[in-house]
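dude i think i finally got it to work??
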Amino acid sequence: MSLHLTVLLAYWLVLLALGLWLGRRVRKAGDFFVARRNLGPVLVFATLLAANIGAGSTVGATGLGYRDGLSAWWWNASSGIGSLLLAFWIGPRIWREATRRGYFTVGDFLEDRYGGTVRALVAALLWLGTLAILAGQMIGLAWILNVVAGLPKAWGCILGGALVTAYFSAGGLLGAAWVNLVQLAVKLTGFLVALPIVLGQVGGVGALLASDALPATHASFWGPRSASLLALLVPAFIVSPGLLQKAYGARDERAVRVGIGANGLALLAFAIVPALLGLAAHVQHPGLSNPELALPTLMVENLPAWVGALALAAVFSAEISAADAVLFMLSTSLSQDLYRRFVRPGAPDASVLRVARLAAIAGGTLGVLLAIVTPTIIASLTIFYSLLGVCLFVPVVAGLHRRRTAAPEALASIAAGVAAATALRLSGFAPSWLVSPELAGIVAAALAYGAIVVLGRRR
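look at this
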């Protein structure tokens, strides 16, 4: 057995044991869903950054760097911009509402503002979309195990899904927050050690950007997909249910601002790392059949064995920590927004916890199956982020800033946003720096919301 595979298996067992041990402390719904509303700035920062640096931010973004060059920076940078807006605009507002009214999920907020129909519709839509982002994390794990051990994609997805489902279903947000702290330390250490070595092999950043092996366009920070990445990711990271529910777990507004704000700054700084690694892989391994194999290929073939093992553990951490954030959205949506609200109102905590854990297991299983048939990480994540922005951005932002709200404007907004984005995507429209399906969907959602509000006032 290779050193790389030995380290990954040992790390797999450590995370599993830690998650199961922490799960013994979870007794109430408040422990599982909002970590007793007692997360300080450090844990808020760690659990958000660990969730945000996942398959798309590492394996996927490095693949974009391999294919497009420095403009891959916008994948993580757009996430960072969205996180900063969440930290200083939406986050404190929704934390105050969640604390005052006892919200556990974004569905609680939506029902309070727009009624049960909107809550059920959004929960159903996001359950379907969230499976896509979970599949993306499983694909990232599969590419690592494929390069390290030659495992077929299907088996890599199954092994990764088993780990994250086991430790998250045991501990929820309370357990995940502490596991994420360990994962974050590993992933940041791994990338900080690996990046200088890889850059040294190609003569440094200057020599890399001037290399004849790269197309001229690869040295530009602005590429043909930059604007569409901004439209796709900034709104999604402002209103993502998984991120908002982690904000619910903060102990005060300062923890929201400091923890989420530091996460946003860290994403902006980290954004250059996968872009440079993608360029280096393009120079040293031209002609890869799949750009998303660029990062694990560098880790295995271009680094000393112990550094490569540490770097692979860092990437492994990234995929796992993002996957547990997705399971958090799946389990809370089904147990709180559907089961406790519509199937069994007034259900005791023990029943809700059991449903949440079963939902995590079901979600993990379906995510693995979807990962097996989905070709790439970026394709999978685009489905989720697109749905998130066009469905939730307008209702959440408007609901926090308007005193009087009703179901018709939210329903019209969701319908118009999904219809516009879907129509453009199915038409084969190529995104430009001015127009993308996601931006068109958000504009359509805002116009529909405003139109219903105006009509209501006239009546």
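DSSP finds 19 helices and no strands in the chain.
im so relieved honestly
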